[in-house]
From TrEMBL:
This is Transporter. It holds the Pfam family Dodecin. InterPro entries: Dodecin, Dodecin-like, Dodecin-like_sf. Signal peptide: none annotated.
């Protein structure tokens, strides 16, 4: 059985429409450059306000991916 190591990073995703879209944007964008993404945990949600109105939704996402050494 092979052993695995996973690394966590934190990202901030944004969307003009929803927190769900903000999370999706963070995960899908990171997955373009990271291999073997595994789990995403939403750590924080907030909104950007402009002129007294919600301008965008933001999600802080903790994302794990499989760590690979140079010989993998």
């Amino acid at each position: 059985m092979s052993e695995s190591v996973y690394k966590f990073i934190e990202l901030v995703g944004t969307s003009p429409t929803s927190w769900e879209e903000a999370v999706k944007n963070a995960v899908e964008t990171a997955s373009k450059s990271l291999r073997d993404t595994r789990v995403a945990e939403v750590k924080d949600l907030d909104v950007k306000i402009e002129g007294g109105k919600v301008a965008s939704f933001r999600a802080v996402v903790k994302l794990s991916f499989k760590y690979q050494t140079g010989d993998a």
